[in-house]
Write a sequence for this structure.
């Protein structure tokens, strides 16, 4: 059970004048004859958690895959801080400041936390060598990872073990922290608590809260209504590839949201 | 992917971890016991090699003489060298079946080069270059041909390289190697063969590459989770291709050592070497499923094979029996790997309990 939603300070007025950190306008995506996304628009601001809701097959995953560069959009555009940005690969999305925590976590089980953090963006030098032949800065990466995990209050008994030896909650925390470490704008979380027990879920949720308080914009996909009303500032509901509603979730309108999701 | 059933329940889904049965032992103590067991498994191959040497030196007084140790080192040098390349490939979840034939082809190309050019250096370069070319064919066809597994392409080059070697050499051994090659394969420093220094030097270079250089980290990442490696922007294809090239290069270096030892190039060299090197990597304790293990594993495995062969010879055990013994050890090594995964599963569950 989630305790009453922590007092959440709304973004300062100065931020409200800014363009949303991420805006999707008129997103449309076809897979053959299937219209997976039809003219979907949404926006998310810094320090805000946006819940993306919908039944299976509603288009949530397609939408976040378009935002994180896995699929190209057929029509529509993605604006970052108000500027249209082409996101044509996962690497481009990461470079633009969008980090995604996939449901399968995309962790390297054989590697430790800091190696997972820096996979594909290792700190290494000297710069005149080709990237693959540079020498790893082990200590700098270990230290930065330790500091970040401490700041996010993720406790691992040891930092030198491969993540294969960690509990589900610790693994999830490492994956979320990895995204947090490198996200400059948006963190997308696809069902971050689906495989976790109650206590571990709670730890991951408080981790998400800390990310939000750090000024990240967060898009959260979940099926758990408690988490939505406890954590999300706004909820966007999708059905059959279309956006069917947007509202501020609370305990009172849970039933309304569920009806919107199932279309009853 | 989302589950197949809508999960609109207000409570949490079932926990992903199995429930921990209440235990009389506190989790801390059990974690320590498991940590110890995992540590034992990790150093197991090194321990077994050590015990083997101790036992054998009691069984046959000749075993631990400097002359015999030098012999073992010389006989093991080829397997150890090529096993290090095989190890890199296995780290990426791959396999290189072509190393034995590549070694034969490289030795033949070296011998032919020597017949036409009296240059030690060019002969050595020709052998290593042949290895690199076969390796790059393996890597490029595997990656660019979008093959599901490197088994087939390396099986094909196994056949092609052997056939090419037989064709080029006219089906027989080509005698004669330049001085440098003979020194590498046959020379000694005191009682230690020069080839042992080649093995150590290569091991040092590869150790730096795998532990201290970005490329090495990428190899482990590709072997650990290829899909995640792609998503995190690791250049998976170049990493794979260079790995197969390096495997070919080690086969070329093996050709230099073997050709030097026998003062000839032969299309029949390296028969079943692919199996010896894979066995060495597995016996040494690296995981066949990729991403786990280090060079020490390949070296220990190679020496274990060398020691067992040598000892069975000294004890005048039938030659055929060697194959059986090595086969049994492979099974034990793989079971140890399975057991390790099991223990790690228990460890994970205890971690969940401990975060309570």
């Amino acid at each position: 059970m989630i305790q009453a939603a922590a007092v959440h300070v709304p973004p300062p007025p100065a931020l409200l004048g800014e363009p949303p950190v991420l805006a999707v306008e008129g997103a449309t995506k076809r897979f053959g004859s299937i219209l997976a996304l039809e003219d979907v628009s949404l926006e998310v601001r810094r320090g805000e958690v946006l819940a993306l809701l919908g039944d299976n097959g509603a288009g949530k995953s397609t939408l976040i895959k378009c935002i994180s560069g896995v699929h190209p959009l057929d029509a529509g555009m993605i604006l970052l801080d108000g500027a249209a940005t082409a996101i044509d690969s996962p690497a481009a999305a990461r470079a633009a400041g969008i980090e995604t925590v996939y449901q399968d976590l995309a962790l390297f089980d054989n590697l430790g936390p800091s190696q997972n953090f820096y996979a594909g963006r290792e700190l290494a030098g000297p710069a005149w060598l080709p990237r693959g032949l540079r020498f790893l800065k082990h200590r700098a990466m270990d230290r930065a990872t330790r500091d970040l995990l401490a700041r996010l209050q993720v406790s691992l008994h040891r930092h030198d073990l491969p993540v294969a030896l960690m509990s589900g909650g610790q693994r999830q925390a490492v994956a979320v922290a990895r995204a947090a470490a490198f996200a400059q704008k948006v963190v997308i979380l696809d069902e971050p608590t689906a495989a976790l027990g109650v206590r571990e879920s709670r730890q991951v949720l408080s981790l998400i809260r800390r990310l939000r308080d750090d000024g990240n914009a967060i898009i959260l996909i979940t099926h758990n209504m408690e988490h939505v009303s406890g954590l999300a500032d706004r909820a966007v509901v999708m059905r059959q590839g279309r956006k069917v509603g947007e509202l501020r979730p609370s305990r009172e309108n849970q039933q309304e949201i569920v009806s919107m999701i199932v279309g009853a | 992917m989302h589950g197949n059933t809508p999960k609109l329940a207000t409570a949490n889904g079932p926990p992903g971890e199995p429930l921990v049965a209440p235990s009389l032992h506190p989790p801390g103590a059990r974690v320590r016991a498991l940590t110890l067991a995992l540590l034992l498994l990790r150093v197991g191959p090194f321990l077994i090699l050590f015990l083997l040497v101790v036992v054998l030196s009691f069984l046959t007084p000749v075993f631990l003489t400097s002359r015999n140790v030098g012999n073992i080192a010389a006989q093991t040098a080829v397997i150890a060298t090529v096993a290090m390349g095989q190890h890199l490939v296995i780290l990426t979840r791959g396999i290189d079946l072509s190393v034995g034939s590549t070694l034969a082809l490289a030795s033949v190309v070296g011998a032919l080069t020597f017949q036409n050019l009296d240059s030690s250096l060019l002969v050595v370069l020709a052998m290593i270059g042949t290895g690199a070319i076969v390796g790059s064919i393996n890597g490029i066809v595997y990656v660019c041909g979008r093959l599901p597994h490197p088994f087939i392409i390396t099986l094909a080059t196994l056949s092609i390289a052997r056939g090419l070697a037989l064709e080029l050499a006219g089906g027989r051994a080509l005698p004669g190697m330049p001085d440098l090659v003979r020194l590498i394969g046959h020379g000694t420093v005191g009682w230690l063969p020069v080839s042992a220094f080649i093995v150590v030097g290569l091991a040092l270079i590869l150790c730096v590459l795998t532990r201290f250089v970005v490329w090495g980290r990428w190899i482990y990442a590709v072997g650990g989770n290829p899909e995640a490696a792609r998503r995190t922007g690791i250049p998976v294809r170049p990493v794979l291709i260079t790995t197969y090239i390096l495997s070919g290069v080690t086969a070329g270096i093996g050709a230099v050592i073997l050709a030097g030892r026998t003062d000839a190039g032969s299309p029949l060299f390296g028969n079943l070497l692919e199996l010896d090197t894979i066995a060495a990597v597995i016996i040494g304790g690296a995981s066949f499923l990729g991403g786990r293990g280090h060079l020490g594993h390949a070296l220990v495995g190679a020496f274990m094979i060398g020691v067992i062969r040598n000892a069975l010879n000294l004890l005048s055990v039938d030659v055929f029996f060697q194959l059986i013994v090595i086969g049994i050890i492979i099974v034990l090594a793989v079971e140890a790997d399975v057991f390790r995964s099991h223990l790690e599963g228990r460890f994970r569950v205890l971690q969940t309990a401990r975060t309570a």
